[in-house]
Design goal:
The complex is a heterodimer of chains A (280) and B (446).
Chain A (H helix, E strand, L loop, with lengths): L1 H11 L1 H20 L5 H21 L8 H13 E3 L2 H17 L1 E2 L2 E2 L3 H12 L3 E3 L8 H18 L3 H21 L4 H7 L2 H10 L10 H20 L6 H9 L2 H8 L11 H8 L3
Antiparallel strand pairs in A: 1-4, 2-3
Helix pairs in contact in A: 2-4, 2-7, 3-4, 3-5, 4-5, 4-6, 5-6, 6-12, 7-10, 8-9, 8-11, 11-12, 11-13
Chain B lengths: L38 E9 L2 E6 L11 E6 L8 E3 L2 H11 L31 H10 L2 E9 L2 E8 L2 H10 L8 H10 L3 E7 L1 H7 L7 E6 L4 E2 L12 E9 L4 E3 L3 E4 L4 E3 L7 H15 L4 E9 L13 H7 L23 E9 L8 E5 L6 E2 L2 E3 L12 H22 L3 H6 L23
Parallel strand pairs in B: 1-10, 12-14, 13-18
Antiparallel strand pairs in B: 1-2, 2-8, 3-7, 4-8, 5-6, 6-7, 9-16, 10-15, 11-16, 14-15, 14-17
The chains are: A mainly alpha (280), B alpha+beta (446).
Chain lengths: 280, 446
């Protein structure tokens, strides 16, 4: 009885769904879209991330090595980061996972790991970039991505960050189009962007690095959407959302002070709870 | 890489050939931009926020009818405008063209519709004072007016699109219907309009029989190409080639998919004589496969070399003419075949077929760190046709298999009928491969 309930618990952990969805996206990207994900990079990222997580587990004296979170970070990095250099892919993974153990504030890690890995590489190297246009804008593809992503969110029960981000960002895009007198096809086309949906469903949604209260999360999403819009359409720099998330991350502790809430814990067997209490 | 064994010499109409055997095969011919009707060519030199844009003017009509209206993101001073050399763009086209296939343009009288360019109706230039007065009354500011080479150039800004469009129409620039919204949008984005037409007097003094490319250098975070005005002319799809020259690596679009054209594909020998049809059919099919929403990568290469070369790499002097400001002045020829890192220029050739429905937004680009070389390359393998001193049955069978494979590849790339293709192949040993029993349903739905 106990064993079976533990078995059930395991499948309630949304991270299994997240891993399944991200893996299918990687496969879809490689097989159907052929958009330049190199398997060597994917392997380098996964191995480095798991390795650093293992070292971090020893360093933080955690009771159990947890491969799920680093796998999710690895898959997000694989989907978004492009580089011809393995060393850079490895560096991104190491920075991402390392930051979870080193950059902490009040029991939470400060930055979304994959986001920090991506931005550090993008800013510090000419050899790493994000190919945001490579998903195309085929509406059906976008729709599928959105549904799959939503599945993950409903399991994570913290959908408000994603929904708020998408609504506010879409509102800004439609508002801009209305002001410019542009046809609706333009903001629609801007929204049908696979990288934007991956960001909204799999990056900003991370419950460990968003504010603890629902109101805080909506506020945070609004901030990220606005900063992303400014970067993209006032400064005309690419990858607005990804840069906006890292710039907004330091406000999370502030928002948490204003609006109190409970630190998120992945639904997981009791053995893991100790681990999660430390928030890694 | 497979070595191409080709026996082509006298038949070639294209004069540039490689002299040495290259790893990637002997160069046969190339698919340059003259393959497609209504093609525009733009060279974009970009490093950080510095941009030099060159617009090729292969307009072939009465020069008095030529006019160009381009939205630009900043004010443009006189020294930021230059009139370039058409030969350099032709050289860049040749250097980056999909290769190993032969093409000769039979129709020199093609008319091109330029991206962003509307052709001028008959107009009698007014005096500049008159123009300024009329402009002010319509809320249009002529921020600057220059004569550069054979062109009269104006930089316009306006409070309202209505006044600007009326002014342009009054002054002989034929602005397409429906332009109001688009012009309004650019004005609100604080863009100016770069307007040019030919000064006939200057042109006759200079003695050029054709229009030379216009070049503009500016600083802006916006790495984009405005295509929306060009989509207003309801003349169907337009072809655009963008050659990006950067320091770091390949350029791609951030708001549309950038897809590589199929490459390194073996095709039957007869394609050598039908390259134009082959490349057009293949490009059509690829465009449809991407639902007509993709930008195609045809070439991405370090400018220091090529293999096989469809043309020599551009010299430092030519690159500077195109606006590559970071290369030295020296006129050192770059080497072919062997890489030499001195240039530090990476070229990307993008080819896009666009219309308003499938490309609602302007093209936005980014420079990536990708320095992997890529080229559209098609391979013809000629079977041995000389005497054989042994039993060649096995060899012939293998060639027949290869020929059949090539036929199928060609059919799948172009959508051509497989039987038509087979009929054009001289199968080795004089026999076609045994007819394959196709399942009855294979052609049921075509």
């Amino acid at each position: 009885m106990k064993a079976s309930s533990r078995h059930l618990d395991r499948f309630q952990d949304p991270r299994y769904y997240q891993i399944a969805v991200l893996t299918s996206l990687v496969c879809f990207g490689v097989i159907a879209l052929d958009f330049g994900i190199r398997w060597q990079n994917a392997a380098t990222i996964v191995i480095t991330a798991l390795g650093v997580q293992f070292l971090g587990t020893l360093y933080a004296k955690l009771p159990r090595f947890d491969p799920l979170s680093p796998l999710i970070t690895s898959l997000s990095l694989t989907l978004l980061l492009r580089s011809d250099e393995f060393a850079l892919a490895a560096a991104a993974a190491a920075i991402a996972i390392g930051s979870k153990f080193l950059l902490r504030f009040r029991g939470k890690h400060l930055f979304n790991p994959a986001n920090l890995g991506l931005v550090t590489l993008m800013v510090s190297s000419d050899q790493a970039w994000v190919s945001s246009g490579q998903w195309g804008s085929a509406a059906i593809g976008a729709f599928t991505l959105a549904c799959l992503g939503f599945l993950v969110l409903t399991r994570a029960r913290r959908a408000e960050t994603t929904i708020a981000f998408l609504l506010i960002y879409a509102g800004l895009l439609f508002g801009r189009a209305a002001w410019l007198g542009d046809p609706l096809a333009i903001p629609m086309h801007q929204l049908q962007n696979g990288a934007l949906l991956i960001f909204a469903f799999f990056m900003i949604s991370d419950p460990k690095t968003t504010p603890n209260s629902p109101a805080g999360r909506v506020l945070f999403a609004a901030l990220v959407a606005s900063v992303a819009f400014i970067i993209q359409f006032i400064y005309f720099e690419p990858n607005g959302p990804i840069l906006a998330l890292i710039m907004s991350a330091p406000t999370v502790p502030l928002i948490d002070m204003l609006a109190r809430g409970r630190i998120y814990q992945w639904a997981n067997p009791a053995a893991c709870a100790k681990n999660e209490a430390k928030g890694v | 890489m497979k070595t191409l064994i080709s026996v082509i010499a006298a038949l070639l109409t294209i004069v540039i050939t490689t002299s040495a055997q290259a790893f990637c095969g002997f160069y046969v011919a190339r698919a340059d931009t003259s393959l497609f009707n209504r093609a525009s060519q733009v060279v974009l030199v970009r490093d950080e926020n510095r941009t030099v844009i060159t617009m090729a003017n292969d307009f072939e009509g009465e020069v008095a009818d030529f006019a160009v209206v381009v939205p630009v993101p900043t004010m443009i001073e006189r020294e930021q405008i230059n009139v370039g050399d058409r030969a350099v763009i032709q050289h860049l086209d040749a250097y980056t063209a999909p290769r190993l296939v032969e093409y000769h343009d039979p129709d020199p009288c093609l008319r091109y519709d330029r991206m962003e360019m509307s052709q001028n109706g008959v107009a009698f230039p007014k005096s500049s004072a008159e123009m300024k007065r009329a402009a002010r009354s319509q809320g249009v500011t002529i921020e600057a007016s220059y004569t550069v080479g054979e062109y009269d150039i104006l930089i316009l800004s306006a409070a309202q699109s209505d006044g600007l469009i009326r002014w342009l129409n009054d002054n002989g620039y034929r602005i397409p219907r429906g332009a109001r919204g688009v012009v309004d949008s650019y004005l609100k984005q604080d863009m100016r309009f770069f307007v040019a037409r030919v000064n006939l007097e200057e042109q006759s003094k200079l003695g050029y029989q054709y229009l030379r490319p216009l070049q503009v250098a500016y600083e802006s975070n916006r790495f984009m190409l405005p295509i929306r005005l060009g989509t207003l002319n309801a003349k169907g799809k337009q072809e655009l080639y963008v050659y990006a020259l950067t320091r770091t690596g390949r350029v791609e679009t951030t708001n549309y998919r950038t897809v590589k054209v199929p490459t390194n594909i073996e095709v039957p020998e007869f394609v050598q004589g039908e390259f134009a049809d082959f490349y057009r059919a293949m490009f059509d099919k690829q465009t449809r496969a991407e639902k007509e929403r993709a930008v195609f990568l045809e070439y991405a290469w370090d400018m220091a070399w090529c293999d096989p070369c469809a043309a020599d790499p551009l010299s430092a002097k030519e690159l500077r003419q195109l606006g590559v400001f970071w290369v030295g002045d020296s006129n050192n020829r770059t080497t072919r075949i062997a890489p030499s890192p001195a240039q530090n220029v990476f070229v990307t050739r993008l080819h896009v077929r666009y219309d308003r429905e499938h490309f609602p937004e302007d093209l936005v680009f980014q420079e990536t760190g990708d320095r992997q070389n890529y080229q559209g390359r098609y391979v013809i393998r000629h079977p041995w046709k000389g005497e054989t001193s042994c039993d060649a049955t096995q060899y012939q069978a293998s060639v027949r298999d290869r020929q059949e494979r090539e036929a199928q590849q060609l059919a799948s790339l172009t959508g051509w009928d497989i039987d038509d293709i087979r009929a054009k192949i001289p199968f080795s040993g004089g026999q076609s491969p045994l007819p394959r029993k196709e399942p009855w349903w294979k052609r049921l739905w075509g």
